[in-house]
Amino acid sequence: MAEMYYQLVINGKRTCDESNKSVKLVPENWRNAVIALLSERGYDKNGSIITVE
Q1: Is residue 53 scored above 80 in pLDDT?
Q2: DSSP string, 4-34
Q3: Is 0.85 surpassed by the pTM of this model?
Q4: Which residues pair with 25 in a beta bridge?
Q5: Burial class (CB in 10 A: 0-12, 13-18, 19+), 6
Q6: How far apart are the C-alpha atoms of 14 and 53, rounded to whole Å?
Q7: Taken in order 34, 37, 43, 44, is the CA torsion positive or negative?
Q8: What is the radius of gyration, based on Cα positions, of the chain?
Q9: Which of the two ends of the chain, N or C, has the fewest CB atoms closer than 10 A to its terminal CB?
Q10: Is 40 helix (H, G, I), strand (E, B) or coil?
């Protein structure tokens, strides 16, 4: 399930960012696992690529 929610976040259908009111949140019981996947793979809570300058 975490991988499915991860894909939804990457595709802009869900978010893990509670301040983003324009997209539906990932359910609370999956949020930490999805945030971990996003972070491991270089994305923020909204599914945007984190760039290092």
Answers
A1: no
A2: HHHHHHHTTS-BS-TT--SSPBPPHHHHHHH
A3: yes
A4: 15
A5: buried
A6: 27
A7: positive
A8: 10
A9: C
A10: helix
